[in-house]
Amino acid sequence: MTAKPFLRALAGETLDRPPFWLMRQAGRYLPEYRALRAEAGSFLDLCYAPDFATEVTLQPLRRYHMDAAILFSDILVIPHGLGQPLSFREGEGPALPPIGSARDLDGLNTEGLLDRLAPVVRTVRQLSKALPPETALIGFAGAPWTVATYMVEGGGSRDFARIKQLMWSDPETFKRLIDLVVEATATYLIAQIDAGAEALQLFDTWAGALPEEDFRQWVIAPTRALVARIHRDRPGVPVIGFPRGAGVLYRDYVIETGVNGVSLDITVPLDWAAKELQPLCTVQGNLDPLLLVAGGEAMDRAIDRILAVLGRGPFIFNLGHGIVPATPPEHVARLAERIKAWRA
Question: Does 150 participate in catalysis according to the annotation?
Fold first, then answer.
């Protein structure tokens, strides 16, 4: 059995002290990140500069000594790698020319995908050599449904009107898009594994936007295909799924996708997760990121409750979503100290 606590927990072990890492642990809340970001140029330039991306990934580890590092990149490198133009507008988020018909898909393909994404793979390779021996390296990608939402909506969305219209009115084109993203994502994740990633996380940020039948078709089924491909081609590499907003469908997601671990959003009741999910796989989560902003007794109580309810089974401490920019670094230090001092 590997000695890395994160991988031991993900393999189903219950540890005396759960391992921890935090979604978006590298980012704008850290002054050293902001300095490097200004030097790199655009956000996309930062993602595609292996030396910068490696340094950004390592920054929170120097401060807080997390049990795992996650590659610094973005889920939208997949559409960019497929040939869809991508830009990030300061203060507005990503922008892509929206896909609205089969004709818009004709110029997108996986030829040259790994050439375009080679800088990201180099970052993984550099990180695998730079991390402390006890620290695991997580690769990641967006799950197909969530990546497709950005590709069709042209960026973020509040109502997902464009993608639902395409999904329901032209299911053949929509399936073609999802299949393309599944293939590209599998290729990309396998390249990350070959470069040194020891585990993977699939971010399905917008999973909760779908009703049950569509959730099963466009969240569960593509994720199942991806996980099966990873487990077949690179056996032994665990996959964590994060179907944010899935509610009671979390359980079906775990059973039907074959993930090794599941990341919980802030709405998942802890006692329910301990009873319904933890017997099936390792659970990860789920402190509200805004409690990390507030700090103090409220944060301490929430940390302690999560540890008390989930810490006596296979568990990785994390947030219910990513760190927000307003987070005081000293609050992250307090969280790290509290987790490290806890014992099952």
Answer: yes
- 250 and 264 Cβ atoms separated by less than 8 Å: yes
Catalytic position from the list 17, 28, 224, 234: 28
28 is catalytic: yes
Domains of the chain, CATH where assigned: 24-286 (3.20.20.210)
Q: Which of 33, 67, 74, 204 is catalytic?
A: 74
CA nearest neighbour of 96 among 157, 142, 172, 37: 157
H or E stretch covering 159: none
Active site residue 37: yes
Q: How many residues does the chain have?
A: 344
Task: List per-block mean pLDDT (blocks of 10 residues) for the chain, which spans 344 residues.
Answer: 88 97 97 94 94 98 98 98 92 91 94 97 98 97 98 95 97 98 98 98 98 98 98 98 98 98 98 98 98 98 98 97 98 98 89
pTM to 2 decimals? 0.97
Q: Considering 8, 29, 37, 67, which one is annotated as catalytic?
A: 37
Torsion of CA 267, 271, 272, 277, to 10 degrees: 100
